[in-house]
Write a structure and sequence with these properties.
By secondary structure, this protein is of the alpha/beta class. The protein has helices spanning 15-26, 45-52, 70-73, 88-95, 102-109, 122-126, 128-139, 165-179, and strands at 3-8, 30-35, 56-57, 80-86, 114-118, 143-144, 148-151, 157-161. Strand 7 and strand 8 (157-161) form a beta hairpin.
């Protein structure tokens, strides 16, 4: 059983993260989730908590304040961090070391392998800035699952669709096998 942290950003594909969390848990993994403020426009922390069996985290500075430091505690003893969907905004903030919320702070504190599943409109995915950010992240060892061709939220067809949760779970399984036991 692996310790997995699933970060969910605010894209139309956020609903797929609920299925991904469920698949990972049914596969025997311990899944903790971080939901960004933007993602909460698409899904709820209650949904992620229900399928993951763990509390869903949303705030860098929890209320009431506690002695724990969430972005450090969530990345301790982690086997894999997944960000699905990974929006253009998240890719840019990650590539440039910005840490202004729980997910980006956790990303910077993470010593485990990281898998990102991008999801955005084709024009955004093809943008030079996004591709430069992907190149930066790839050069730092970040792995990518997708995006793939398909019908996008806007109704067009193109590259930018988030991979299906079961396919992301297969990539996760492969990464965990490569990593081996802790």
């Amino acid at each position: 059983m692996a310790e997995i942290l699933l970060g969910v950003t605010g894209g139309a594909a956020a609903f797929k993260a609920v299925s991904l969390a469920s698949i990972l848990r049914k596969s025997g993994h311990s899944v903790r989730c971080i939901l960004t403020g933007s993602a909460s426009n698409f899904i709820t922390s209650t949904q992620l908590s229900a399928v993951s069996g763990s509390p869903c985290y949303t705030d860098l500075f929890p209320s009431p304040p506690s002695a724990s430091i969430p972005h450090l505690d969530l990345t301790d003893n982690l086997d894999l961090m997944i960000v699905a969907p990974a929006t253009a905004n998240f890719l840019a903030r990650s590539a440039h070391g910005l840490a202004d919320d729980l997910l980006t702070s956790s990303f910077l504190a993470c010593n485990a392998p990281v898998l990102m599943a991008p999801a955005m409109n084709t024009r955004m995915w093809d943008n030079q800035a996004v591709q430069a950010n992907v190149k930066i992240l790839s050069s730092r060892g970040i792995r990518f699952a997708g995006p793939v061709q398909g019908i996008l939220a806007c109704g067009t067809v193109g590259n930018g669709r988030m991979m299906e949760p079961i396919d992301i779970a297969v990539v996760c399984s492969d990464l965990l096998e490569i990593r081996g036991p802790r």
